[in-house]
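[agent] plan:
  1. take the single chain provided in the ticket
  2. run structure prediction with default settings
  3. attach structure tokens to the ticket
  4. add a short note for the reviewer (M.T.)
[agent] executing step 1
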Amino acid sequence: MARRYLDRKTKERFKRLARSGEFDKHITEKGPKIQEFEDVLSSKRVIFLQDVYDEEKSASDIVTEQMGELCRTAEETSEYIKLVNDHLDHQKLRVDDLKEMQKTFETQMTFLTSNTDKSEKKKATKE
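[agent] step 2 finished; step 3 output follows
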């Protein structure tokens, strides 16, 4: 409820400002260029695809660096896979234990229900 009121209020305010002519809805022209600012900003607009001050490296150096990173990544991945597999093994053992407990419970329940049925039949036959 409050949000609708706020939205309505801001829309009405924007319409009122647009009708009064104080502010244009869109900027249609560029302002004057100031040379000092242009010189400072032009250096910030440059995009470097490689480090300017970096030494040139041979292809073999680049390949050895990339191979080192690749080896580290492979080691980390294999350690992670090993940890996940260990965790899954523990969970599988837990599930197997729970299944065994479920079977034990079901056999005990069937045994108890069969004993109660027999005792009820004996009581019914005695009477």
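[agent] step 4 note for reviewer: Residues 68-127 form one domain.
[agent] ticket updated
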